[in-house]
Amino acid sequence: MTTDAGEADGATQHAARMARKKSVVDRHIAKAQAERGVLVVNTGTGKGKSSAAFGLVSRALGHGLKIAVIQFIKSRTDTGEEGFFRRFPAQVRWHVMGDGFTWETGDDRRDAISAQAAWKLALGYLADPAVDMIVLDEITYAFKYGWLDVNAALVAFAARPPMQHVIVTGRAAPKELVAAADTVSEVRMVKHAFAAGVKAMPGVEF
């Protein structure tokens, strides 16, 4: 049985650990005083890369920021996120620019043309200081298949307005993009309902 003295000793040790941890966290916070736009990359084989990006869009809306979302590859316009964010036309500009996933189109030339049109639109936003956040959803496929040059994209990212945030999503983010990004999250697949025969469900998959 735990004694009162043992409980008190455990509480004291826990308080000491938390005090040390707080000291470390406080030092990091004190060092992180720069204010500028960040380049965020959500990559990996798991589900949730785009969903995480749209979570940031929600957060940005709460701060009154103006956002542009450009969807590469994806073609459907019945997603829950689009239906929701289109309720905020003064703050969110939403563009579905793809023709469907590559295994659906089977047309490399058509996919390349669509990706280049989407990038041309993105360049306009990347030059606009009135746009606070840009989401380039699934753009990594355009780099992977050679439709867009990642180094040219990095030049455009570097030249954007200083307070503008860019969120990039998609599998197999190129190493150059990962190196240039401020924040990189890799989403790993553990399980997916689709493998068990569950169809894409509204509100979860789209």
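That was protein one. Protein two is written in the same sequence-then-structure order:
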Amino acid sequence: MIDRRALITSSAAAVAAAAMTSPVAARAPAGFLWGTAGAAYQIEGGNVASDLWAMEHVKPTLFPTPSGDADDVYNRFEQDIAMAASFGFNAHRLSIEWSRIEPERGQISLAGLDYYRRVLETCRKHGLAPVVTYIHATTPRWFAAGGGFTTTDGIAPFVAYCDLVTRHMGDLMEAGATFNEPNINALLSWAPEMRQAFGNLPALQQAIATAVGAPHWASPIIADFRVQQPIMIEAHARAYDAIKAASGGRFPVGVTLALIDDQPFNGDMSGVLLKRGQVLTPWLNAPGDFVGVQNYSSSIVGPTSNMPDPPGTEVTQMGYAYAPQALEAVIRMVATQTRRPIWVTENGIGTEDDTRRVAFIKRAVEGVQHCLADGIDVRSYIHWSLLDNWEWTRGYGPKFGLVAVDRETFVRTPKPSASYLGQIAKAGRVA
């Protein structure tokens, strides 16, 4: 129920021809970041102090496959970072697991801080600019047990954590994002099949609270966005100020947002505008130096909900429309809503067919180049993901990685798409 991508209802929709008038740019500008991404909980393994680890191990659980050792990146980050650099990238997006830094409230792990500093130092050693997310979906178990972001009491601990991390390793960061996709629950609320699930959230929260012995349990990924979102926006604003102060303003700070290319059903824009007002606008009104765009597909939006996919729509392993052109449309839409730079912080496809991944990358990057040619300030293309990983309620089924990971030996095997995107990165353009 809480898959960050699997539950997004999407429908095939062509990008308007009028938005496709620009020739492909010769190449990305100097300083443009090309890279891949990964989230600590999905790849490191053994994040036992996290709220998700607790939720994985209650009975019954929402997760058919536990994360377990994941990709064992915790012990193998040096080889993975070196491999990413070998493809030709100049950036890498990663997250820090708060529960490794503060496994119990007020108990700071210096070893945890030093671990992530070594990760960032390794990125720099190999010429990869670290784009760091402070929270990527998960929080410490103690934080969720206290109500998480459904109470304003959660703001101060989060701000203190951001300040601590920035003071310890901010000198190595290229950019920072307070949250990854904090608008995801608002986005999911537009999926018709999710309406009933959202109605069951209070009962689900109560069941987990009883199982873990925490009556106020509120894990962010299943919390009611109507309660949580305004508190997270305030937390972001205060953390933004804290990060800027702790770093001396040496790197940009923003937030990454889950965004779908929403097309109006029968030309009626009312639903698109209503949805945008819930999913995008509140976050654009919050402080930030950039907007992180994360796009995977398109949808057709009726007055109050998304509409079904048209018959015959090609879908990915996640069950939503194959729509590489959607990234361009989303960038253009966001550019009409803000003057801030746009960073593409996630874009990719879950598929076993790597030829479809290569085709997806080609069209998506061409879309970025169209936007650059039209003067839109796009600063990065960061692909999700470097490795096949644990996909929340989908377990290890969907394959998003440019690199395959053997589930028993952890041997990494690059796919042709890794070399293809690396060639684009080295050339700064689609050939």
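Confidence is low (pLDDT under 50) at residues 1-22. Keep this in mind for the problem set.
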